[in-house]
Amino acid sequence: MADSIRSAALKVTEPRLAVLAALTSTPHVSAEQLFTLVKAQLPSTSLQAVYGVLAAFGNAGLVRKVEPAGSPALFERRVGDNHHHLVCTRCSVVHDVDCAVGSAPCLVPENDSGFAVHAAEVTYWGLCPACQVDLAAL
Ligand SMILES: [Zn+2]
Ligand SMILES: [Zn+2]
Fold this sequence. Notes:
Layout: H1 2-7, H2 14-25, H3 31-41, H4 47-59, E1 64-66, E2 74-76, E3 84-88, E4 94-97, E5 123-126, H5 129-137
Parallel strand pairs: 3-5
Antiparallel strand pairs: 1-2, 3-4
Helix pairs in contact: 2-3, 3-4
The structure holds zinc ion (2 copies).
The site of one zinc ion has 7 residues, from loops.
C-alpha cells in the first residue's frame, strides 16, 4: 500500500494509507462513504482531508473517478484499463465490466468529427441480481 503511494511520488501519510486501504476493500465509493470507512480507522480524519487525499491520488493517477448520472462521484483503485460500469437503477450498486473490445478507447465512434479519441466511458444501466430477486418477490 505504502509502495504504491511512494511510486506515485507522494509522501506516505496515515490518511493516504487509510483511504487507499478503504478503496482496496470497497471500490466505487463516494467521498462521504470513504470518510465513514476511514474514520473508523482514523478518528481524527476530516471529510476535507479525504477530499484532499482523493485530489492528490487523482492527480497522481492512483485512483479513478466515475460519475454515473444522478450519483455522487465514485472512486476506485482500478485505473488505466478503461473498464466500464454496470449500475443498478434501483439500488445504485456498481460493478466493473471489462472493455467492450481490446484496449482504450475500445469503442470507436462512427463519426469522430476529427477528434483524436483517447477514451470511451460506457455506463450500462439495469437491475442487479439482488434487485431482480427482490422485485420478483413483491
Ligand atoms: Zn440493485
Ligand atoms: Zn470500476
